Every structure is written in C-alpha cells, then in structure tokens.
Amino acid sequence: MKKVEAPTLEEAYELAANELSCSVTELQYTVIQYPTKGVLGLFKKNAIIVATHKTPSIPVQPNIQKNTTTTTATLEEEVAHEIISSLKEDDYEENTSMGELSEVSKPQTDDIIDSFFESDQKSNVVNEPEVDVELAQSVEESLKHLFDLSCFDIDVVEVDVVDNTALIFIDGEDAALLIGKEGYRYNALSYMLFNWLHSKYQLYIKLEIAEFLTSQQEMIRNYIQPVIENVEKYGKGKTRFLDGILVQIALEQLRERFPDKYVAIKTAKSGKRFVVINEFHKKLHV
C-alpha cells in the first residue's frame, strides 16, 4: 500500500502505478485529497491517494499468510480499514451531503453521543481522578499500530486514561486530513474510535487532533457568553443547533458554569440538537 502525492490525480495514479510496478488499470485506490488550483497561486492543494495493487504478484504466499493471520486478526486492523474507507473525499463531499450522511448514520452516532452525555452526568460527583497507566499504555500502543496500518503520517500518539475516559492526543503531517472540512472527519474518527475502545476496554474518549479540540472549545466558549448572560438575567436559556462534538463541548461548559441548574441536551423534530438551561432540576427536588 502506497500513499502518493502529486499535482493532479492523473499524475498521482501514474506515480502509484510506477511504485507498485503495475499498470494504472490494476490500481485499487482511495482519494484522500482532491487537487485544487487555489486563488492567485495561494491555497493550492495537491492530489493525495492511497493505492494498492488489485492482485498480488505471487498468489500463493499471501494466501498462506492470510490463513495464518485470519484467526489472529486484530481489531486494530479492522478499524484501520474502516478509517481508510470512511475518510474518502468523494464519499463525504461529492457523493453524500452532510445532511444525507447524518440520516444514514444517525442511529449509531446518536447512541454514541448519548452515551457521552450519560457519562458526563454520572461524573458530576467530585472524586479523586482514577488514572490507569497500564491501560493507557495498552491503548496508546494499539493506536500507534492502527495508524501504521492506515498509512497516514501520524508521528505523535499519546494516551492518558482518567476516570474511565481515554484522553487521546494525535498529531503529525496528516493531522489535517483526519480533521477534514468543518471537522466532519474528526467526528467520523471519534465515532469509530469510541466504538472500538468502548467495546474492547469499556472506555469513553476525548480526542484531540493537533489543536482542533482546543480551538473548538474556545469557539464554543465565546459563543455561549450571550447564552450565559441570558440565563443570568432570566434564569433560563438555550443554544442554537449544534453538530457533533460541539454540542458535547457546550454541554460540558454550561454544566460547569451552572452546576445548580438543569443543563441537558434536547432534540428538535428535525433531529438537530441543542442545549437547554433552566430551573427544572430545582423544581424536581423541592
């Protein structure tokens, strides 16, 4: 498997074919980034593909190796394959709009986000954080192996496990590719990693790629200032519709700001989510 970068897709196909010693028609490839001309020479992007040879040159040996590894195939390899498949540019930008993607994956992603919220609610009790160094090391090694298999250029993978949550930091030359336009790849990767880590280690996750999560937290912090002022003035308020990780960030920050109020996620008829803040929680305990 080769990752190839070139000014055009055609050149990328030819370069990949040369490196794999096969013809262009024998390539099986995934387009990671489409080329753009930019504006006045600025913001120009090269084409990036991940390519393999459709048929192995020696059929016997790969079959033997596959038979010996099938029973011991790791979950990391399956997730790596899912990452490559799901991060294709044409799947997310050309063939499917974000709205259509949300409808297709809604049952799965909503369940995952709901479990994040339930975890946050259960962690409201102040206790000493439980740090699991051994588990953190195991998850970190698995993630490094995963990204080695996925062919993305990721040179930093750090994991801490605190209070049943894996705090994951990822960085490297291809970090921006894992984030994607408006963070849609970040959301997709978060969902896949959560499915994997929760099923294998019963862990929740908080994923930071480069400085993306930090920038999103700062953006939401600025956005909710008028919401906070409205709650302080009238005793209640709500956010606008928020997507993916943003609604979780807003929930965390508003719960921290109003620990004595009812702060929760609500879903509109359209399926979109927002955060409400009111006195409902107090009334229940009167």
How is this structure best described in words?
With 286 residues, this protein is α+β, with helices and mostly antiparallel strands. It has three domains: 2-73, no CATH class; 94-210, K homology (KH) domain (GMP Synthetase, Chain A, domain 3, 2-Layer Sandwich), CATH 3.30.300.20; 216-284, 2-Layer Sandwich (Ribosomal Protein S8, Chain: A, domain 1), CATH 3.30.1370.180. Helices cover 52% and strands 19% of the residues. It contains twelve helices and nine strands. The protein has helices at 9-20, 60-70, 75-86, 89-94, 98-122, 133-150, 175-179, 184-201, 212-223, 225-234, 244-257, 280-284; strands spanning 2-6, 27-33, 47-53, 156-162, 165-171, 204-209, 237-238, 262-267, 273-278. The strands form three sheets. Strands 1-3-2 form a three-stranded antiparallel β-sheet, covered by helices on one side. A three-stranded mixed β-sheet has the order 4-5-6. It is globular and about 70 Å long. The termini are far apart. The model is unreliable at 56-73, 88-114 and 116-125 (pLDDT under 50).
Which key terms come to mind for this protein?
GMP Synthetase, Chain A, domain 3, 286 residues, 12 helices, Ribosomal Protein S8, Chain: A, domain 1, single chain, three-stranded antiparallel β-sheet, alpha+beta, 3 domains, three-stranded mixed β-sheet
